[in-house]
């Protein structure tokens, strides 16, 4: 499991020391967060999208950051089109209409990209 710290201002060439103590009740597992995102994007964007492997993200809240992957037969996974965060305590998905539109545009770009030759 990886933890991602957001908005951390790191000096260029200096000693860095990070002490972290956080507390949250994890009511939503990484597996459940991935399932929630997969269901949501299938309903709201496309059945050709699914949630990827979640990463724990520490920002304004502690959340699972779930990548959204575009997958088209017969090619399989084409790539990530964005991510959706899922609050570990409440299970709330953090999405906006702008985020959904951005993922739509990225998916269109990936889907229309020329197919890579197979070896």
Describe the structure.
A hairpin with a 3-residue loop joins strand 4 and strand 5. This protein has helices at 30-44, 97-112, and strands spanning 3-5, 49-51, 55-58, 62-72, 76-87, 93-94. It is α+β, with helices and mostly antiparallel strands and 119 residues long. The two termini are 33 Å apart. Strands 1, 2, 3, 4, 5 and 6 form a 6-stranded mixed β-sheet that branches. The model has no long low-confidence stretch (mean pLDDT 86). It has 2 helices and 6 strands; from the N terminus they run βαβββββα. It has one domain. It is globular and about 45 Å long.
Describe how the helices and strands are arranged.
Layout (H helix, E strand, L loop, with lengths): L2 E3 L24 H15 L4 E3 L3 E4 L3 E11 L3 E12 L5 E2 L2 H16 L7
Spans of 5+ residues with little confidence (pLDDT < 50)?
A: none
Radius of gyration: 17 Å
The H-and-E topology, N to C, reads as EHEEEEEH
What is the average per-residue confidence, as pLDDT, rounded to a whole number? 86
Share of residues in helices: 25-40%
How many separate structural domains? 1
C-alpha end-to-end distance: 33 Å
Q: The biggest beta sheet, please?
A: 6 strands, mixed
Class derived from helix and strand content:
alpha+beta
Number of helices: 2
General form: globular
């Amino acid at each position: 499991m990886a933890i991602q710290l957001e908005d951390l201002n790191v000096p260029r060439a200096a000693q860095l020391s990070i002490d972290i103590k956080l507390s949250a009740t994890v009511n939503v597992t990484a597996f459940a967060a991935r399932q929630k995102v997969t269901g949501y994007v299938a309903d709201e964007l496309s059945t050709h999208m699914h949630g990827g492997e979640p990463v724990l993200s520490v920002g304004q809240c502690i959340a699972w950051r779930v990548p959204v992957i575009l997958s088209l037969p017969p090619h399989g996974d084409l790539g990530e089109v964005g991510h959706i965060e899922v609050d570990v305590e409440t299970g709330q998905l953090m999405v906006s209409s702008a985020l959904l539109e951005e993922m739509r545009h990225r998916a269109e770009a990936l889907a229309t990209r020329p197919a890579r030759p197979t070896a």
